[in-house]
Write a structure and sequence with these properties.
50% of the residues lie in helices and 5% in strands. It is mainly alpha-helical and 165 residues long.
């Protein structure tokens, strides 16, 4: 299908038979991150126009799932894990371990390609940051966010997510 596939072509432009054939010929890797961490990162990168995290979250909730930005849209609606059989799902926070395995499986040299990742420091920092940001939210916002990301929380093991508590 390489003659049909161009840089600009989206998977949705193909019929089901073509999609199945194309996806069967690729190694499919999905990188996932706790949805609450994605919100924090988006806010810190200045993608929200509001000055407080709470007002940014309200902007996200008001946008709804169908009108939301790719930066905070639920992963399930972006990546379709129920329709696409991914070969690997790599969780943020376990990047060094999982990328090493993935590179090894692909026959690539593991040590030279991996950046220095200190997953435990990243996890600790996001845990602390999550506690701070989560405390800014009202009980109503917490409940709405859990509902907004309910399918992500059901599809992926974000056991330590503030949204699943």
């Amino acid at each position: 299908y390489h003659q049909l596939h161009t840089k600009e072509t989206r998977l949705s432009k193909f019929n089901q038979t073509e999609i199945k054939a194309m996806l069967g010929s690729y190694t499919k890797v999905l990188f996932v991150r706790d949805p609450f961490h994605r919100l924090i990162a988006t806010f810190l990168q200045g993608m929200g126009i509001n000055p407080s995290f709470s007002s940014f979250v309200q902007e996200v909730l008001d946008s709804g799932i169908h009108n939301s930005s790719v930066a905070w849209k639920p992963l399930v609606s972006l990546c379709r894990p129920c329709l696409i059989q991914y070969d690997y799902v790599v969780m943020f926070g376990f990047l060094r371990q999982e990328l090493g395995h993935l590179l090894h499986r692909a026959g690539l040299p593991v040590g030279s390609l991996l950046p220095e990742l200190t997953d435990s420091q990243v996890q600790w920092t996001y845990r602390w940051l999550s506690e701070q940001m989560f405390s800014e939210l009202s009980a109503q916002q917490k409940k709405q966010l859990s509902r907004f990301y309910r399918w992500d929380l059901a599809a992926f093991p974000f056991s330590s997510s503030f949204l699943s508590e």
